[in-house]
Amino acid sequence: MYNFNHHRPGSVDAAAAALSSADDGKILAGGMTLLPTLKQRLANPSDLVDLGGIADLKGIREDGGSLIVGAMTTHAAVADDATVKAKIPALAALAEGIGDAQVRNCGTIGGSVANNDPAADYPAALVGLDATVHTNKRQIAADDFFTGMFETALDEGEIITAVAFPIPEKAGYAKFANPASRYAIVGVMVAKGPAGTRVAVTGAGPSVFRLGDAESALSGGISADAVSGVSVAADGLNSDLHASSEYRANLVSVMLRRAAAAAAG
Amino acid sequence: MPDTGIGASVKRKEDFRFLTGQGRYTDDINRPGQLHAYFVRSPHAHATIKGVNKTAAEAAEGVVAVFTGADMAADNVGSLPCGWVVNDRHGDPHKAPPHFPLARDKARYVGDHVAVVIAKTYDAARNAGELVEVDYGELPAVAETGKAQDGSAQQLHDEAPNNLCYDWVLGDEAEADAAFAKAHHITKIDLINNRLIPNAMEPRAALGEYDGGTDSFTLYSTSQNPHLLKLILCAFVFGMNENKLRVIAPDVGGGFGSKIFCYAEETVCMWASKKVRAPVKWTADRSESFTSDAHGRDHVTHAELAMDENGKFLGMKVDTTANMGAYLSSFSTSVPTYLYATLLAGQYTTPVIFANVKAVFTNTAPVDAYRGAGRPEATYVVERLVEVAAREMGIDPAEIRRRNFIQPDQFPYQTPVALQYDIGDYEASMSKALEMIDYDGFAARRSASEAKGKLRGIGFSSYIEACGIAPSAVVGSLGAGVGLWESAQVRFNATGSVSVFTGSHSHGQGHETTFSQLVAETLGIPIENVEIVHGDTGSIPMGMGTYGSRSLAVGGSAISRACDKIIEKSRKIAAHLMEASVEDVEFDAGTFRVAGTDKEKSIAEIAFTAYVPHNYPEDVEPGLDETAFYDPLNFTYPAGLHICEVEIDPATGVTEIVDWVAVDDFGKVINPMVVEGQVHGGIAQGVGQALLENCVYDKDSGQLLTGSYMDYCMPRADDLPSFRVGLTETACTHNPLGVKGCGEAGAIAAPAATINAITNALGILSMDMPASPEKVWRLANEPKMAAE
């Protein structure tokens, strides 16, 4: 990697200040995407602002019917957390299925969400569970947050502090992992929460999307049978070495049924 | 069973240092004043090098020197040679275009070496590497094996018209045609043997050091055969005396063939260390491993099998195009010829076989031996053909194999493709494997899977391999540039411990344990008293290294012979000490006894006497240190039957291997646990090829699309079942240990077993590897998709 200045501030405000004073600063969260990019010399930031020293950004708490997950909470911490397992087991299961043990021990929810990799798992969790992204400036509904492939509603220098998940009545996640990378080729989150039934799909398209047909089909009750007729068109879905858009369309239907079955319990 | 002798599952002696992080690999070695090399590699698959501007790089911080192909040419550094001459169907040698360590006028694959930067740190070298300005003239590239010769493809080498390296044949085509003319049925298949990237855990590394005082070099390298590397570098690349180079291959973390070869990087590090008068080190990063390690497999094959009405094989015809990559790696030419077509008889009595192999150049990394090297490709052709034949003829796949097996009373068996199998019992392996898998219960298991909405299939692979490579006279007559014997020196130390110097090289195989067991049992001494030394041309007799499952059969036999010499010399010393005639002295379990008396001397006492010869026979030299060279009389022929059972989810196309039975005949077994580990690893690699691994180049640009673990899928523990391994035994007839070799068997057997199982589950005849979920899903749903 190229040389850069490393900052490890103790507060979000100090991080924001370090970022704004850098020529070309980047936030370092878990580093699971950024560090390989740097090692391959595909990026050359002047400064890295490492959020690992900010205690406020770590941890999980329940607050008013929601789980608040700090932005620097690792996937492993979410997967192992007793409250998450009790209140939103589908979220714990999703976190448990991200990458491998090394990735889960370093990667964070904030970093994953801010990167908005089209094959990441968390975007499906946020949209499916109707979460809200908390930043140092505002709160953004998940539906408005993920704006396109590797694109989010975050402004320059805006720092995610937490993600708030309303505790659902039911939720289930099913994922078809890329056998090499273990990213989602298709991941589907089905949830019945305070705001109704939601279905979010990651991996299949350029960015996470909701599946309206499936939400309607599940509105009368969540079961695999209820969505047995739901399919999506291959047009516009991702296509790569590992899966064509046609195969992804099939996987959306299959993972939808499996997620619905998991949510139904 | 003895605790530590032959047949005991002794825990691996070497694992303590590996598991506690105390292994010493090439990259762990640092020399005073050491500099670092960074290779500037071609980003294009095919391009002329119009010019290289080194000025900015040379001026960069920490840079000591920048070299290009022109600098090496000025020093008369030669081409990296291909050490096996294959004569084509007209008797002419294969086309051997030069392969310079740093490209001179053209780059021929993505990753080809164009320049090297030598600097005080790796980062400084890499930074400066970005400042080397190469003026490329891009040319059209050809990356596909099947397209290299279609006339429109750009020529890679002037020396090889139409990108053809050789057009080679084995067998009699007219006889084969005659056999086919009599056939009741002919089964035809088209296969692609997918290209693989070796992925040894330790990347390649090299550290060259020049000693001006003696005008000599030391090269530390991740080599499977340090003596051979020394020979190639001195005799062919540099034209220097062999006594001026010492090659040390310390602990090496896996090779699978990819570390047999003489590579550009180690050549450059050695040469540059004299230019800059400082040690020069290079360690590949993982991306470099993907682009520049010699790859494996990559065949396109059409094959036909002629049968009579009972499914008895009458003849086989095989037509293969093999990809050599952009240049010929050290032994590349032998892999799709003498290590491939000679195995096409398999375990069967097929009387006539004709093979035609065309080797072609493409704008891809060089291709050479990879675990199994030609033999997996042969087994895949034979066992897929046999399976398809069984389905087409309506004969049970076990039964059609039985009808064609070479029978135990037919050995030694001369195949129509040059090899003479010494011994085997294929029915024994089949019976045991069928029992272990409960073949009779398969129908019920398939029904149970169907009830769950799953498709179940079973697949066989009756593989054979030619190992213990190899009789020097035989390989010499076939074009090998070297002899393939092995050496061993067994040295008793004065106080009774033993150091064994072996020309074999361990890079994960467990030699330090297996060879110690052999020596401990043969000499009758505690295993703790045996040390195995390998990997240093400065301390070991000339040896040929480790590949082709040869270490125990050839290297172990050399150790056995050296131990015999030790015992014979010791017997003379013992006879003198016990005042008996040599003929009356018996040796058993480490003790010499005078027959019929209670006089005895331990071998340790004899060793002490040999070094402190106060009372000593006049006609015997002091010391107890014997060397033996062993040249095998024949290849060894490990064989067996692997059975794979799969369950497929038709909704997703995911294949789960639910059971795996491997019954192998490796001859005598020294350490069953080490053998089982080798079988497990081999199967994992074979399953990797069948289900997951695939090296893909963009067919137009020649860019490597699977250049990292994000896209190149290695098998992991949860992709595999718990293997069930069984052994049968027919002892090799021609080596002193009766052993055959086990390192490659799994990788040879597994691909065909897996694909046979998947196609059985899907009710189809053929599909190409890897059986990715999407491919399997399409095949599972094809009729339905067609109906829609």
TrEMBL record, chain A:
FAD-binding PCMH-type domain sequence ranges: 1-170
Protein name: Xanthine dehydrogenase family protein subunit M
Pfam families documented for this protein: FAD_binding_5
GO molecular function terms listed in the Swiss-Prot or TrEMBL record: FAD binding; oxidoreductase activity
Keyword Phosphoprotein: no
UniProt lineage: Bacteria, Pseudomonadati, Pseudomonadota, Alphaproteobacteria, Rhodospirillales
Top-level division of the source organism's lineage: Bacteria
Gene3D superfamilies recorded: 3.30.465.10, CO dehydrogenase flavoprotein, C-terminal domain, Uridine Diphospho-n-acetylenolpyruvylglucosamine Reductase, domain 2
Swiss-Prot/TrEMBL keywords: FAD, Flavoprotein, Oxidoreductase
Automatic annotation (TrEMBL), chain B:
Record flagged with keyword Hydrolase: no
UniProt-listed SMART domains: Ald_Xan_dh_C
Gene3D superfamilies named among the record's database cross-references: Aldehyde oxidase/xanthine dehydrogenase, a/b hammerhead (3.90.1170.50), Aldehyde oxidase/xanthine dehydrogenase, molybdopterin binding domain (3.30.365.10)
MF terms (GO), sorted A to Z: iron ion binding; oxidoreductase activity
Coiled-coil blocks: none
Domain named Aldehyde oxidase/xanthine dehydrogenase a/b hammerhead: residues: 20-140
The protein's name in its UniProt record: Xanthine dehydrogenase family protein molybdopterin-binding subunit
UniProt organism field: Pelagibius litoralis
